[in-house]
Amino acid sequence: MPTAGSGYRGECNMSGPQHDHREKMRSRHELEQENALFYQEIMVARRASDITASLVVEQFKKMEEILHQLEDNLTTQHELRKQLAEKLQEVEEQKHKLAQARNAAEAANAAKSAFLASTSHELRTPLTSVLGFARIIQKRFEQVIVPAIGDKDHKIERATRQINDNLGIIVEEGERLTKLINNVLDLAKIESGRIEWKIEPVSIAEVIERSAAATTSLFQDKPVFLELDLADDLPPLTGDRDRLVQVVINLIANGVKFTQEGSVTCQARRENDEIVVRVIDTGIGIAEADHQHVFENFTQVTTDTLADKPSGTGLGLAICKQIIEHHHGRIWVESELGKGSVFAFTLPTRSEMAGQPAPAMRSAAAKRELDQESDRGKGKTLLIVDDEANIRELIRQELAPQGYRLLCADNGEAALRVAEKNRPDLILLDLMLPGINGYEVLAELRKRPASKQTPIIIVSILEDKEKGYASGADSYFTKPINAQALLTEIENLLGTARQRKTDQTPVDGP
Ligand code: ADP
User: Fold this and answer.
1) Is 313 close to ligand 1, i.e. is its CB under 6 Å away?
2) How is the chain split among helix, strand and coil, in percent rounded to 5?
3) Coil, strand, or helix at residue 68?
4) Is the CB of residue 283 less than 8 Å from the CB of residue 266?
C-alpha cells in the first residue's frame, strides 16, 4: 500500500532545473497529499459501505423474523378459525338439542295439563253425586230420621250420632276433594297459560267486601273476628275481579284456619303507585325459613302446634302468587312463629281508570235488589237437561222441596221438545250431551219464540264461562254444584225473567 513521502519522491533543481525540481517536488507533495486524502475517503466510504451492508443484513434478518412471525400468526389464525368453527358447530348442536328438549318439555306440559283437565273432569262427575247425595242424606237424616227415632234407646241414639258424624266426614272430605281438584285444575290452567282472564275495572274495596261476605261462615264457630280496614282513597284498578276475590278469600280463610283466638284484619292502603292489601292474623305464625316455601306447590309448613291440625291442599298460596303476578303485583309474608302472620300483596293502580265506577259495584247493587225478590220464584216449572241420571236426580231432590215443578230431559233433542211443549220458566242445561250438544241446544232455544226469553243456567263440568255467556246463557255453574248458590241464582233469575216477560207482553201477546 503506498504511503505519504515514499514511492512518489523525484529529483530537486534550485534554478532552472532547480526551480523545476522544486516545482516537481511541490506537485509531488500535493499529489501525495491528494492521494492521502483520497485514500482516507476510500477508507471512510469502505467503512460506510461495511456498516450499510451489515445494517441491510440486519434488516433482512429482522424481515425474515417478521415473516416467520407472520407465518406463525397465520397458522395460529387458521387454527383458531378451525376451533371457532368447531365451537360454533357445537353451539348449533346444543341449540338444536335445547330446542328439542324445550319442545319435549312443552309437549309434556301440554300432556300434563290435558291429563289433569280430563282426570279432574272425570273425577268431578262422580264427586258431584257423592257429595250432593251425602248432603241430602245428612239433611234428611237430621230433619226426618233423627226426630222420628227419638232418644229413648241409648244404643240407637249412639248409632244415630255416629251415622250423623260419619255423614259429616263424607261431606267434609268430599268438599276437600272438590277443592283439591279445582285447585289442581286452576294451577294447571294458569301454568299452561290457558286460563281466561276477564280484565276489567275493579274496586279493591268491593273485592275485599265480597271476600269477607264469602268467608263469614268460617268465623262462626271460633272466637276469631274479621275486621276490615279500608282506606277511603283507594283508586280503581284493572284486573280479574273473580280471581282477586279468590286470592283474598284464600288469605282470609288461611288466617282464620291458623288462628285459634283473636282476629283476622283485612287492610287496604294506597302506597305510592300501588294498592297494598294486607291480611293480618293473630295466629300461630310461620318460621322465617318457611316464608318462601309457603308459596310453592303442595307445601304445608304448619307444625303440630294446633291440636286439631287444619286440612288443606297446599296449593292455595301457589295459585294466589300466580294470580297476583299476572296482575304485575307482588305477594309475600311477614311472620314469626307464635306471633301471627301478615300476608301482603300489591297491585299497580291505573290512573286512567280513576273516576269510572267499578261495574262490580253496580252488579252487586242489582243483585241486592234481586235478592229481595228471591221468594217469588217458587211454584215455577224448571227443566233439567242432563244425560247423567244421578245428576238429574240430585238436582231434582234439591229443588223439589222448594215447590218447583220439575221436568227432565236426558239429551238435546228431548230438551228442545219439552221446552217447546211445556214452556218451562227456567232451564238448567248440561253441555256435554249425546247427539246435539249443550251449546247447540242453547243456540236453538234462543232462536225459538217459546224459549228465547227463558232464563238458562248452564250446569257443566266444563269451565268455559266466557263461551257459555257468549252463547246466550244467563248464568253458569261448574259441577260439583253448590246447591244453595244454585237455588239463589234460580230465584234471582226467575225474578229477572218475570220482569223480562212482562216487558215483552205487548210484542209476544198473552
Ligand atoms: P293450604 O292452606 O290449603 O294448606 P296454602 O297454599 O294456602 O295451602 O298454604 C300453604 C301453607 O302455608 C299452609 O299449609 C300453612 O302451613 C301455611 N300458612 C298459610 N297461611 C298461614 C297463616 N295465615 N298462618 C300460618 N300458616 C299459614
Assistant:
1) yes
2) 60, 15, 25
3) helix
4) no
129 vs 170: CA distance, rounded Å: 12
Examine the pLDDT at 366 and tell me if it is beyond 70. no
Around 21, how many Cα atoms within 13 Å sit in the side-chain half-sphere? 9
Question: Residue 125 to residues 388, 391, 442: CA-CA distances in angstroms?
Answer: 9, 8, 21
Beta partners for 228?
A: 266
Other beta carbons within 10 angstroms of residue 373's beta carbon come to 15
Whole-angstrom distance, CA of residue 405 vs CA of residue 424: 9
Q: Please, are residues 353 and 238 in contact by the beta-carbon 8 Å criterion? A: yes
**Using N-to-C axis directions, what is the helix angle for 241-257 and 204-214, rounded to 10°?**
50
**How many Å apart are CA 99 and CA 460, to the nearest integer?**
39
Probe ligand 1: pick from 290, 300, 305, max atoms within 8 Å of CB?
Answer: 300
- Does the pTM surpass 0.85? The reply is no
Strand partners, 333: 343
User: Does the pLDDT at position 299 exceed 90?
Assistant: no
Nearest-CA neighbor of 371 among 136, 199, 504, 213?
213
Residue 247 has pLDDT above 50, yes or no: yes
Q: Which helix (H) or strand (E) holds 278?
A: strand 274-281
Residues 6+ apart with CB under 8 A from 332: 291, 343, 344, 345
E strands, 78-161, in order: none
**Rounded Cα distance, 158 and 424, in Å:** 46
Ligand 1 neighbourhood includes 281 CB (under 6 angstroms): yes
- pLDDT confidence of residue 126: 85
Cβ burial 261-271 (10 Å sphere, 16+ → b, else e): ebbbbbbbeee
- Supply the DSSP symbol for 215: T
**Which residues are 341's β-sheet partners?**
281, 335
Cα(298) to ligand 1 centroid in Å equals 10
Cα–Cα distance, 365 to 26 (Å, whole number) = 143
Sheet of 405-409, strand order: 405-409, 381-385, 426-429, 456-460, 475-478
Instruction: Please give the distance, rounded to the nearest whole angstrom, from the Cα atom of residue 129 to the centre of ligand 1.
Output: 29
Cα-Cα-Cα-Cα dihedral sign, residues 402, 407, 409, 412:
negative
Helix 204-214 with 359-372: angle, nearest 10 deg: 40
Could you report the per-residue pLDDT of 481-508, keeping only the tens digit for each?
A: 888 888 888 988 887 544 544 443 333 3
Whole-angstrom distance, CA of residue 486 vs CA of residue 78? 78
Length of the chain: 510
Q: Cα–Cα distance between 280 and 295 in angstroms, integer? A: 17
Ligand 1 center–CA 235 separation, angstroms: 30
Is residue 341 lining ligand 1, measured as CB closer than 6 Å?
yes
CA of 247 from ligand 1 middle (Å) equals 13
